[in-house]
Design brief:
The chain is α+β, with helices and mostly antiparallel strands. It has 4 domains: 34 residues, no CATH class; 219 residues, Beta Barrel (Thrombin, subunit H); 94 residues, Pdz3 Domain, CATH 2.30.42.10; 92 residues, Pdz3 Domain, CATH 2.30.42. The chain has 10 helices and 29 strands. Strands 23, 24, 25, 26, 27, 28 and 29 form a 7-stranded antiparallel β-sheet that branches. The protein is globular and about 70 Å long.
Length: 447
Amino acid sequence: MISNVRLALAGLLLALSATATAQMPAVVEGQVVPSLAPLVERVSPAVVNIRVSQTVTRRNPFGDDPFWRFFGSPNPGSSEAVSAGSGVIVDAERGYILTNHHVVADADEIQISLMDGEVLDAEIIGSDAATDIALIKVEADGLIEMPIGDSEVVRVGDFVLAIGNPFGLSHTVTSGIVSALGRTGFNRNGYEDFIQTDASINPGNSGGALVNMSGELVGINSMIVSRTGGNVGIGFAVPTEIASSIMRQILDFGEVRRGLLGVTIQGIDAEAAEALNASVDQGALITEIVPGSAAEKSGLKVDDIIVALDGNKIDDASKLRNAIGLMGSGEDVDITYIRDGETKTTKAVLDRQQVARSAGTDIHPGLQGAQFATFTTSSGAEGGIEVTDVEAGSPAAQRGIRAGDVITAVNRRAVRNVQQLGELARANRILFLLVQRGDRSLMLQIR
């Protein structure tokens, strides 16, 4: 019985190997031993190690107190901080590499190491904190790229490889399966649709490749869920559908231009459906439509319940927000909705989310060197204040502000836009910023 199971498993892995390569697996004592080595050998040169360095200025413990300046308080000095991640070459001719936003966000200098040991300088072409995707570029000949696969056809149970540089150990390969699809809820200010995998992902794997058995890139490894900081079999990758969309927008426009439908929405559950006498108990109920928006032009009305977008089911308001936010402005979208118990469809051409920007210098002396932006969400509402850039060694950097941080409250008062931040800064010399950084919250004091 056990031998039959082993033979069945060997047959399955042999079929996978045959899909990945024409090379026959090894034979040991007359029995076929399947191997993924030919596949790994083919795709690994497209994965690079990324070394990021930045200058960190140690803050003077006496702050800006003129009493201590009179006595000549010591210069706090600065030091170089170095971190590591991974990346995937997706265009060998032009030298384009996909990685995570959080890997390169605070970089003063970026270097990548190829599998053969060659080290190259890299520059950031564009980066998007909301999806955690960045595009960097190197100048080199003879690069090897990884073909981009279709993450839309990935299924739970598919075999995958994770290739990256965990803990600085270059070109480490782990294997597993796709554990789940469409995972969300880790960053309420971001746009998420993660592929979950049990292929081992550890610190340093960020930006590396999630590869299918055809040797195609289907995801950019982004994060893990772990109390210890190490792998526990729950890792997440940004699907190539999202990564490719972000890359195209960066290359076409020099920035990410998110779609805007122009509606205010809320989720529907069984209790709400009963109260509204609605024929469905899942979807996104439209409670307001912005005048002149894509939603109004498409014929949508308040009280309509959106249940599908381009044929994909919409379970709740967050699913709709996520789906629209991952689309580009100008894209056509087919909307299925319920009105008076009848299922209807319409087409909308998405508007562009507007971004209000402001320099920290104009807000508060302690925020000098930082750039802030107010994002308009896919529903048309203000979505919070993101730190889009921080100059190394600036007052903002010394006080712990980082690019990608999202400010949600100032002195215990919720803020939704840059204007509110400015108003509170003008009224208070000392600011306590409640900041969302990835999956954790922290308080920063600004004087």
